[in-house]
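Lecture 7 notes. Example A: sequence first, then its structure tokens.
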Amino acid sequence: MTSPPRAPDGSPAPAPDLAQGLAPRPGFVPVSGAARAESALVLALSLYRLYGLSQVAVAVWLDGSHYPRPVPVLALAAAVFAESLAVIAVCVRRRAIPSWLISADVVFCTAGLFLCAALTVRGDGHTWIYFMYPFTVVTSVAVGFGYRRLAAVIAATLLLCAGYVAAAIVLHHDPFWNVVPNAVSYLANTTVGWAAARYLRRSGTDLDRSRVVAVERADALARERERARHARILHDRVLQTLETLARGEWVSDEAFRAHIAGEAAWLRALVEGVHDGDGGDLPAGLQRLVRDKARTGLRVDLNSASVRDVDGWPDLLPPDRAAALVEAANEALTNVAKHSGVSAATMRVHLRGAEVVVTVHDRGRGFSPGEAVWGMGLRESIGRRMREVGGHALVDSAPGAGTFVELRAPFGRAGDRPGRAAPGSAASEV
């Protein structure tokens, strides 16, 4: 069995980096999808043109004796070859099909239909001897390639059709029932060519957009990995030291220890990617609470892991409900500091259905729900504040068992009422 690749020092080699794989190599200029689409259309035009020229060459070579005036016919065939090669050269050089070039080509082909009809015997109008008809039918796909608008394609096609119909009826006296189906061939080729070119160009544009998005995501992934690496270093070294100093007895000054705890809370928010925002940002508001309470001596562990990877959920919560949750959580933590007899609490934020839930839990002395010391704060500062925004608060406590406060606010309209506590639950609504 093949052993996994290893680095020069003998350690396992790191996994391939997706961000590095999507990043362009130095000096490498990627070809855009739109440019590739145009190149494919230029190639198709060139191949169709060469195929049309082969038909002209075969007609003149094999049936030259059928022309009453061979010299003008050879001159016309030479002009067709020269014009076609010029069209191909311009398109290849520009790597695109200019619409003005197609307009000039349509005029040339229309004139060529009349001239070739005049140089061809009447009875040979249905054969390859009248080489301008099969040539223009084959090369007419360039009309669909060159024009972006369908109206321009149809207008140029009608000019070709009119030239063919007039030459066939006036000069060759072909029957109308035969001329009309032949003329329709132009319309079929140009419209199909336009549809194919439109699809190809759109695919190239979509490819370019997807490439831009992929590169942006790769850049964001690289930045996030770098931030995570720095955060890991700060967490393992600086943050652990600050939190140890804030919790232990190494710092005798209470005020300074509270200051260290506040700075540790700020650093933890930075490491976890939660930054101070405006008043309507719930994660930032709760993190500010953690930092502020740390400066007063209350250590709060904020657990938001369950929502950290849920993109955009704070934007779905109206600012007034985010503010209500922060204010109610602040009051709950204040009551912990005043009445629980402990210096630590746990705060958790998570999503439950169409609601945001914030819980505050301490392992203090607890209380009976009827005690006046907690009753006013719960009913007025917490319960009423949550009811104002369509949410509610639940409390579960008992003497010696600590206190658990649950705050719930819906994502929906302010008048919507969230679900009540489950039947049989010991928690009571305030």
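Example B, a different protein, same format:
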Amino acid sequence: MTAMGHVGNRDPLTSQLYTLKHKLQESAPVTAARISPNGTHLALSTSTSIKIYSLTSSTAPSPPVLICELRGHTRGISDVQFSPHNPEILASCSDDTTIKLWNVPTAKCIKTLRKHTYHATTLQFAHRGNLLVSGSSDETITIWDLISGRPLTTLAAHADPISSISITPDDSIIISASYDGLIRLFDTETYQCLKTLTTNSSHGTATSSLARMDMHAVGYVVVSPNGKYVLSLCFDGCLRLWDFVANRVVKTFVGPERTKSPETQSGAAGEDQEKASDEMEKRIDRTTTTTTKTAAITPICEKYNCEARFITYGSNALIVSGSDYSGILCWDIKSKNLVWRHRDGDRGHNDVDDNNDDTGKSSPVLTLDTFDEGRVLVSGSLDGVVHIFEMNREPPKNGSHDEGVGEVKTGGDVVNGGDSTMNGSGANEHPERDSEMNGQTSERAELADDSHDDKDYMNGVAEDT
């Protein structure tokens, strides 16, 4: 690990929301970066090992200190997660098909879980901490009892490798994403598939029908802190906010405009960004996958499983995401405007040029995590660079639109009201199970507060128009 000083960035959006506190350089791609629930440790998975750093006060001049390295996996590590109730316990999954539980203070593996038959790709602790859920390239989801170390059940969930898993704050629903283009919701008590979400040719809608065959792979999903919305990153280059109870996409976020001038690029954070978002969605609806490569909008991700998070610190209501080409991107949820971005200034102009030449682009930002509702942000990249940011105490207003970042009003509907800590053969389509939630709202999926009327809802998330 090499600690590096602050690096300048020509993008004027860089200094508005977060301040870069520390920059680390690892020798291998960082596939997962996680902050412990108490904010004292940072776990980085690189190749076949996990590095644990101590995080001192954000105002301290010294960088994070490496305190131990966890070794035991024989192939690449895909994901790591701290236990939500015991920051001394860490779980990891790997291409060697195993899941390991680690005691961080002793740097020892305390348990190895074996069930998957192919790469273990993603995992999440239940918020109560008693269960662990894992996804795999073998197209299954396994739910583990952490006391016994045995699987409670294995779900034949998808028809392609599972890319991401999230769990609602009340631990009632598991949400999975896959390269088959589907997002599925499973009941944690009955293990039944409650619903299958996928976009169709109708702008901004979702459906349980699998008739549309040109679905884009879904690389990542994360549920909102209040459990009412799901954020998904698809390989069509867009990020979508789903009201999964109502079975619809309520917001679509797109990357920055593809221009040669960084000053012109920053203009995408203004009023034109919302128009660009709507236009991109229309292009996706009427064309094929190649559209995003030739449009004026740089795709958020179309190759890597970049991660995203909700930011609710202070009065903010934001979404932050990694990307293939544009570094770290952050949007205002209400306006869909791009309000902050960070790209490594050492790499020069970082956008894809008109000829799709990748020479000057930013290294893909693969992983993100937050602490204290987004006050602290950490990112990890394909080139091994790790950034640690802290939010400015009073983020300045974004002059490109009427409401500043600190003035976003959510009406309590979008992301507030919960803890922000949360990523072929044998696959069942479950048409009879999907019907349980189609056309009606199941009791277990009724996460929205019935007291919110339409006016309050619109104050939180106005639908795409």
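Note on Example B: The mean pLDDT is 76. The first helix runs from residue 14 to 17.
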